[in-house]
Amino acid sequence: MWEQFIAFWVSGSWSSYLVRIAIYFLVAYLIHRLSGRIARRLLRIRSLASKRRKLRPDRQKTLTSLVGSAITFLAMVTAVLLSLNMFVGGETLIWMVGLFAAAFGLGARPLVSDFLTGIGFLFEDTFDVGEKVDILGNEGVVESVNLRTTTLRAGSGELFVVPNGEIRIVRNYSRGSFSPATVTIKLDADDLSRALPILEALGKEATLLLPNLLEPWQIISQSGAIGQQTELTLVAKAKYAMGAEMRPRLLALVHERLNESGINLGD
């Protein structure tokens, strides 16, 4: 191998080889620049082929980023292999690639794990760009996903860069089926027997008065204690991301209905 390299260098044909190498990497760079467009075209063809299942906009953006980075990686690897093929034969090149892959796999296991997990994201709909998730205790909105890393923007502004190989458990807030809208009220103990039937009937009525309420609430006592006053918890489920907006409406509705019945809320 080294004899071939010295022979071609001495022969003076090295300039033509340099030009070819430059062309290879220039083409790879151009593919890298166009990888986003190529990825969008490929996904558009895929969506046309499977009309039954349309990709969500967030999922399409995520796949575009992943496919684009995969195209860039393949273009660069191809440029390197074509350049090496000018100096060594095909069998020697295969042997070198195999040896390098084995050494690279042993010495850079975390990096290999990152790329393999990133490839897995192409087929697993775990999370998408724009969704709020919790990864490794880091909570934020997914800003970008590529083959090696996932970036999260925290609510306080920090940017988390998480290697894909470290992602094992994902808490996806954006795919919850409901949001809790639980409220707590205090009543005089003397009014408890009158308040319970009113609250039970109101729970069924509230699903009609408040469209974002998914089902009648449950009435529980978390402490189980009673004195001059008792504390009741109304466990309610609202449509996803509507829990905070629903709580004041629930409190206003409960206060109004109890007040009409002459039942005052405690302090």
Record keyword descriptors for this entry.
Alpha-Beta Plaits, SH3 type barrels, alpha+beta, 267 residues, 3-stranded antiparallel beta sheet, 3 domains
Walk me through what this model shows:
With 267 residues, the protein is of the alpha+beta class. The chain has three domains: 2-107, no CATH class; 132-174, SH3 type barrels, CATH 2.30.30; 179-260, Alpha-Beta Plaits, CATH 3.30.70. The chain has helices at residues 2-10, 14-49, 57-85, 90-107, 109-121, 192-209, 243-260, and strands spanning 132-135, 138-145, 149-153, 159-163, 170-172, 179-180, 183-188, 218-220, 229-235, 237-238. It has a five-stranded antiparallel sheet with strand order 4-3-2-1-5. Helix 2 (14-49) packs antiparallel against helix 3 and helix 6 crosses helix 7 (243-260). The longest helix is centred in the N-terminal third of the chain and has 36 residues, at 14-49. The termini are far apart.
